[in-house]
Specification:
heterodimer, A: about 160 residues, alpha+beta, 10 strands, B: about 525 residues, mainly alpha, Cytochrome Bc1 Complex, Chain C, binds protoporphyrin IX containing FE, binds FE2/S2 (inorganic) cluster
Chain lengths: ~160, ~525
Amino acid sequence: MNSETRDKAVVSRRDFLGTASLGMVVLSALSLFAGIFRMSKANVRYEEATKFKIGTAENFPVGTVKKLDDKGVFIFSTDDGLHAISSVCTHLGCIVAVSETGFQCPCHGSKYDENGKVIGGPAPRNLAWLEISRSVDGSLMVDTASAVPAGTRLKLIA
Amino acid sequence: MSDMSRSGMDRMKENLKALKQTVIGSFLRSGRPTSDRSRAAVMFNNFFLHVQGVKTHVNTLRPAYTLGLGLASFFLLMITTVSGVLLMIYYNPSIENAYNSVKDITYVVFAGKLARNMHKWAGEGMILFVLFHMARVFYTGSYKSGREFNWLIGIVLLIITFGINLTGYILPWDQLSYWAFVIVANIIASPKELTDSLGITQYFDIGGFSKELFLGGLTPGKEALTRIYLFHIMLFPILLFTVLGAHFWRIRKDGGLTKPENFLTTAVDGEMLTLPEKKGGIFSTNKTYGLMELAKGRTPAVDKDIENTVLSWPNLLLAEAAVFFLCLAAVVVYSFYADAPLKELANPLIPENPAKAPWYFLGLQELLSYSAFMGGVGVPGLALLGLALIPYLDREQEHVGIWFSSQQGKAVALRAMAVGAMVLIALLVFVINFGWFRTWWPNVPQLLITLINPGTIWVGFMIAWSFIVIRKTGSTRMGAIALFTLFLVSYVILTYVGTELRGPNWDFYWSKSQWPVH
Ligand code: HEM
Ligand code: FES
């Protein structure tokens, strides 16, 4: 094997070290950025919990709708039980209001039927149905972070 | 008393007497700017002036060429910087105090209202003037012949200008701020619309992730305000000034501003030649020179031998001072008559109806009302990409430095404006009257709306029209003129519709007076 072909086939020590250190620099820069992003993603949130109590079933007589303004949910009480529908528009997050046909958003005119299904406007998704559960002390709890399939109702035992 | 000390005192007295001279002399080390040499020295010895050349081309000084628009953007930036620092004396970036501190600035602090108005109007003025400046640069073909990269730098400046304005809008934490913030946060989350329709949100929720990073949580609260403040007073300004430095540096390195290849001087240009101050000699000191004497024998061109340049001091600096004082005067007068709005304290329970973003984003909000993803991310992203690529897709080097390049260019721009306005208005009239897919088929899949909506159709039209122009004229520059003109037309029309013609529930109204009372 003559020395010229050898030189071509084998990466020289200088090239190797050069490339390797460049790689290390790039890698460190990437991890720095990843670190900055990770740091910006808060570990602690100073927000209200997504899960909250709404009192007992007596608060919700059959046939009524209650709007819990500060929580962003509607609680519907029907013969079939209780269900919660989010009042946060799925378009850009405005608060919808009850209208003749269901719900109506003031921001860009999205319309939903009484089950929260989109029937007009730019909203890309139906209004979320939220989980209602019973806590140990017998009061009801809603979790706005936990969506359930539309039609899920909590049966009330009379 | 020794001789030594007396002469020391004497020297001290002399120094005191000469104080004025020596201080000025140390500042102007080449003497007063009375000769060409000392005028040149002023420019290259001064840190702040040396980014500009000692001599300036006559074309650059013609008001009708640059219209002073880049300068006006810069001076407005200076005004916002100074007034912004003043506002920071009292502003408190917490959701408990932000609103009250702004209210105090407006109603209690001495001259606070003026500072706030000036900050607001100069800042929003920047948007207008940066866009105008971009249009000037575009229509004079000044993104060519080595200036491609400076055009890209310009695009970055445009984005930062929007960003800095938007973050500022949120700081007062009133109803306008809050609901604009909610909308923006959800625009950031809007890639969800796409990932949802593709069914991959569970695995790859880029929208939700970006929103959480932006807000430092799930809802616009105190973490979010801290971040917005950080962006507004630190990150964006530092970026803006750094990038602006590069922008100015590049102008210098690219050989000053563009100018037409066959530049002809006119009689007026001769007035810019400055003469050494006469001290004695044959002529009296009061003698003034007419252009005829100066340009003798070489009319109509003045000083062809130095390629139509004149000394920057005083010509360029006077022009700059004029633009500066015009800007300052305009901002002060406007701020005296128009007050920056301040609504009620932010209330997350009651959305404004209509909830509108700041005016410069209302064109986008109109597009948002068709599809959040396309309006907030897709179309603006494409528009910025298109703008950024212009110098690389149109590389014809003729007619640089001439408004609209040629008669043909003017015609192309006019036609694009007329046709574009008609098509866009027709499209809007159609949507407002008949709605879109979901009005006709309530069960249409979201993906179809995301892909085919008035916004994307309009973008398709802009691209198609530009290709037709390129085909017909055989010139990429003409295609670029058509595309850029369509961009301006859509920005103006959509902004107008979003601002004036959209009322509660984003319904159409001819005027605000017809909005239902509630
Ligand atoms: C904060 C925003 C900006 C400021 C303060 C600024 C400032 C300036 C100034 C003072 C000039 C000198 C000429 C004149 O006054 O017209 C200039 C030239 C230029 N600007 Fe900007 N600019 C900004 C944004 C932009 C944008 C958005 C673009 C385009 C996308 C751009 C592209 C250019 C180019 C290519 C030149 C050279 C023009 C020529 O050679 O004739 N700038 N800029
Ligand atoms: S936020 Fe409800 S329609 Fe836009």
